Amino acid sequence: MARLPEPVRRPVALGALLGNVVLVFQQSEAAKRVSIELDLPPDDPQLDVDETLLIQALLNVLTNAAEAADSLSGGGLIRIALESDIKDIRIVIADQGCGVPETLIDQMFHAFVTTKPNGTGTGLNLARQIALAHGGDLLFLGAQDTWSAVFVFTLPTSPKLADVDERLGRA
After folding, report:
1. What is the rounded distance in angstroms from the CA atom of residue 32 to the CA atom of residue 26?
2. DSSP β-bridge partners for residue 12
3. Closest CA to 57 of 118, 112, 109, 113
4. Under CATH, what is the fold of the domain 10-167?
5. Is there a contact between 14 and 91 (Cβ–Cβ < 8 Å)?
6. Residue ranges per domain, the chain?
7. What is each CA distance from 164 to 5, 9, 51, 136, in whole angstroms?
8. Total-model pTM
9. pLDDT at residue number 159
10. Is the distance from CB of 96 to CB of 77 less than 8 angstroms?
11. What is the Cα 126 distance to its own chain's centre?
12. Strand 34-39 versus strand 76-84 pairing type
């Protein structure tokens, strides 16, 4: 796979970014039969991120969530939540779809791994690489409560460049 460009960071209000991601996503074919619930905190945390890369990562995970939720008759619900504390900011994407097959859990972030007949297997891998390039990660938390799959982007409130290079294997 091609190497990601270095993130071009600038201050971004993440709640506003998520609102825009949802608006863009709702225009896609994948979003036609799902409902999206957006849960934002009253304060809109800002973080220095590459907005274009982060939008791409979020759209990749949302597309997977929508396709999983739509695999059940009648579509389903996707929840996007923004959470933060002193250490990091978390973007949680959860769906009520078919879940992730147990045999795929250890491989889902590898390149070219897919369960879809026409899938390329690049979406989750790219999304995770983007999170890592920002000093964070993309994690799969499994099923929780009424959600069949929960993914979490973690983004540190103040990433150290050395940590980012180490995570990407550039150290």
Report:
1. 7
2. 47
3. 109
4. Heat Shock Protein 90 (3.30.565)
5. yes
6. 10-167
7. 13, 13, 17, 8
8. 0.82
9. 59
10. yes
11. 10
12. parallel
